[in-house]
Design brief:
Pfam families: F-box-like (PF12937). This is F-box domain-containing protein. The chain starts with 12 loop residues before the first strand and ends with a helix. α4 links the parallel β3 and β4. It is globular. By secondary structure, it is of the alpha/beta class. The strands form three sheets. The protein has a 16-stranded parallel sheet, covered by helices on one side. Strands 1-2 form a two-stranded antiparallel ribbon. It is built from 18 helices and 20 strands.
């Protein structure tokens, strides 16, 4: 039995009175808890833990088989999912445990067979979200006998293989997925080598778009064959399109952006991080007629002229991510303030924008900082804690902040003073990341008091990310003593982003 079961309840003395009025100690064990309470406890466990608990006794086996515990299931063990040893065992799970409660499932390549898909279609009528992971595939199963597929899917995520052509499988499911509203196609960006290799179009986007006319959200992430023609294809058929993400699709240049906005009148979110946008194409877009509210152009080579032209013409920009851009400088920021509409901006990311001065940022933040909910100014050595301490009084509505650089600085960051300023001015803060090198953080023996004040005043804080070092250990221990065990994390395993503020953030999550 797992250690978490060795709780005080097994040995607790419950005071009670017998008929003669005497007080005696009664031993209460976890087995005496009502089924509803046990079911609630089980709901906090992973499916791997639930399977272990089912071996304890018949009662717990019955609780573990309750279908309400199996509404969202991952069968990818490498991503903290349940390891299924055989297809027969999976088919048993589908019929006995999943049933009508199943809403979401993740399947690895070895479990994606026509038999499994048939069972899901027949026994899980409320399945609406599915992830199919073909990323490690060297060959596909035979889908020639595939006659059924879940028909109520609203969300489909397909992790593509580098070498396996998907068209044989996709042809079989086109008739079942016309109700899709959210589509993720995830490429192998992380596996791409610097040397040019032959690029395969492993999925036919032009046929796929014809089968999915109701898409609201399209996420094409890190796919080496996606280019402007594929964006044009989706825009020609998906009139409901609200959000398009093509992050890390290096062949996207923006040549069909003008047509995209002419067709997709509802498009309000466009994410193009690390693409190869060409300034000339984006200057041809009729931004002033668009409904765009959220824009990510980070890591692109757009010129200063193009950036000014875009930002002064977008009528209702709420979210702007424009980090890692040489063209983004004080002139762009000044033009945006003077000629653009900044009144609705709630999120700004200018990470690694070395051509921005602290004076230019101060002018912008002192005027508009009060309306920002997300602010990320990381990776700039000249933006120190001095600027942050100056602007913190106007950042009273901020929910997300990212600051600091991993580069070693000539000066030091007085982190106690900074934390005190954040605690005093940012009561709504939920996520904070300090990227500074631990050797640059200076704190005193009274640091615990500053951390205490920060922890007590920022009660909504969900995530505090710090570089691993002595200060991280002090902060982590402080929060753990207050039973806030999961708040403090390191930069090696966690990062904070303004993306949490996107209207379609939950729809854009994959993996």
């Amino acid at each position: 039995m797992d250690s978490w079961l060795s709780v005080d309840v097994t040995t607790a003395n419950v005071l009670s009175r017998d008929n003669r009025g005497s007080v005696r100690g009664v031993k209460t064990t976890i087995e005496k808890l009502p089924d509803k309470v046990l079911l609630n406890i089980f709901s906090y466990l992973s499916h791997k833990e639930i399977c272990s608990m089912s071996r304890v006794c018949r009662k717990w086996r019955t609780i573990a088989y309750n279908t309400s515990l199996w509404y969202s299931v991952s069968l990818r063990p490498e991503i903290s999912g349940l390891h299924v040893t055989s297809l027969d065992f999976l088919l048993s799970l589908i019929s006995v445990r999943f049933g009508s409660s199943l809403r979401y499932i993740e399947l690895p390549i070895e479990l994606i067979t026509h038999t499994v898909l048939h069972e899901l279609a027949n026994r899980c009528p409320n399945l609406t979200h599915m992830l199919l992971d073909f990323s490690t595939a060297m060959q596909l199963h035979d889908f020639s006998e595939l006659q059924a597929f879940p028909t109520k899917l609203k969300y489909l995520c397909v992790c593509l293989s580098e070498v396996i052509f998907m068209e044989g499988f996709m042809r079989k499911i086109y008739n079942f997925i016309n109700g899709l509203e959210i589509l993720h196609l995830i490429g192998t960006y992380e596996k791409v080598e610097e040397e040019e290799e032959e690029i395969y179009e492993v999925i036919n986007v032009h046929k796929l778009k014809s089968a999915t006319p109701n898409l609201r959200v399209i996420n094409l992430y890190g796919i080496n064959f996606i280019d402007d023609s594929h964006i044009d294809a989706f825009s020609s058929n998906c009139i409901q399109l609200e959000c398009l993400a093509v992050n890390y699709c290096s062949k996207v240049t923006g040549s069909t952006m003008k047509t995209l906005f002419q067709r997709s009148k509802r498009l309000r979110c466009l994410l193009m991080n690390q693409t190869n946008l060409i300034s000339e194409y984006l200057m041809q877009v009729e931004w002033e007629k668009s409904s765009i509210q959220e824009l990510d152009i980070s890591g692109t080579d757009l010129s200063t002229e193009c950036l000014i032209d875009m930002l002064v013409r977008i009528p209702n920009l709420k979210f702007l991510s424009a980090g890692q851009m040489n063209g983004f400088n004080d002139t762009v920021l000044s033009s945006f303030m003077e000629m653009g509409n900044v009144r609705n901006l709630i999120a700004l990311n200018l990470d690694y924008s070395d051509n921005l001065s602290d004076e230019g940022l101060y002018k912008f933040l002192s005027r508009y900082g009060h309306q920002l909910q997300g602010l990320s100014l990381a990776g700039m050595p000249h933006i120190t804690d001095q600027l942050w301490n100056t602007v913190l009084p106007v950042l009273n509505n901020v929910i997300i902040m990212v600051m600091g650089t991993q580069e070693r600085l000539s000066g030091n960051v007085l982190v106690d003073q900074l934390m005190d300023g954040i605690a005093t001015n940012c009561p709504r803060l939920e996520r904070l990341e300090l990227k500074w090198d631990p050797d640059n953080l200076r704190f005193s023996d009274k640091s615990q008091k500053a951390i205490d004040i920060f922890r007590v005043k920022c009660l909504k804080l969900k995530c505090l990310v710090l570089s691993d070092g002595r200060y991280y250990e002090i902060v982590k221990a402080n929060f753990e003593r207050a039973d806030r065990l999961t708040v403090v994390r390191t930069t090696t395993c966690c990062s904070v982003s303004n993306y949490y503020l996107l209207q379609n953030y939950k729809d854009l999550i994959f993996n």
